Amino acid sequence: MIEFTFWDILRNLLLAARWTVLLSLAAFVGGGVVGMVVLFFRIAENKWSRRIASGYIALFQGTPLLMQLFLMFFGLPMLGLRIEPWTAAALGLTFFASAYLAEIWRSGVDALPRGQWDAGASLGLHYLQELRLIILPQAFSITRAPTVGFLVQLVKSTALTSIIGFEELVRTSNAINNATFEPFKVYGLVALIFFVMCFPLTQYARALERRAAVR
Amino acid sequence: MGYGLDFGWLAGAAGAIARGAATTIMLIVVTTLAGTFLSILGAAGRRNGPVLLRQAIGVYVEVMRNTPFLVQLFFIFFGLPSIGIRLDPILAAMLAMTLNMAAYTIEIVGAGLDAVPRGQTEAALALGLRPRQVFVKIVLPQALKVIYPALTSQIIIMMLESAVVSQIAVRELTYEADMLQARTFRAFETYLVVTMVYLVLSMGLRRLLVSGGRRVLGAGVS
Fold it and tell me: Any idea where the ABC transmembrane type-1 domain is (chain B) (predicted)?
């Protein structure tokens, strides 16, 4: 049997945490890009476009992320794609994030007074220019706190990808626990590592919220 | 391609899916009741308790909110036995869900308590009610009314999160799905059906909570 010292455990967990960070970033960036597309559909003039986007958001907010990941993992091979845990994890979290981010940003767009659109139109801007120059910058600016708050949720959600076999922090900790039989220490450390990643973001979101409240 | 969807197994699986859904519902009912109760105590303690208690509740909330539910579940189910606390999977699941939920609802309930004007407490005290009566009869009902929508969302989020407890072999909806797909080799179809069951559950739960809240707490609850 191999002996693991405390430092061996911690080092292996920290190495695995790199994948948690990478997956979180990939899902946040991917979710941001797809979320922008969903947002365009969600705030379009066309009734059907809005309905489809609402349905998309309701679908992802009304089902467990674990199920979404399973469907990615077992559904992608049916489309003829080679399946890797990484692909399923990154794509699953991307779609999950896109629904939440689109809804957060939509609330920002809705919060702007109607006059902002009218002012843009009266300056002769067309729809896309209005969005790009007037509406979206303001909508993003007032929804910065919930966006950061969602990032915390996303980092925590990456833990679920261990279940479909992606080798991140939790999956590595399961393996270490099976070798050392020290679940109290191992899962305690995992919780601590997640806390160190998430707590600064939580505090940042709070600071943004306070700043927004003052203004 | 050449892969056709096949739902022929569904007829024989309805019972298992219904049993799993029933367990999921049972879990969320217990969690909602215990979690809300705990968070009322927590929120009150955080406002009126001794300094040490306030700080302890603050730390508890931060730790639970900044770590994944899956890790909390593993810590409770695998970690606690090493200090002598051994729990059934279903008890561990209920405990983890309740503790997780309470961390979020302590903040929600707290916001509701803060939203009740100070004059309400003063008026009730002036009428000769004891402090506990003031809290239970005057402040709490008004606070619950304010926070009801946020509480509803949190309950639904928790219901969706409960899928994770299949990982410690609690026989709820996701666990039954895992078993079914292992037997039928129709993984995608199985998870698709079960995902739809979750969707129906979450939409139904929301509708039930909204209409129930309207009846109990009065109009204005959305």
Answer: 21-209
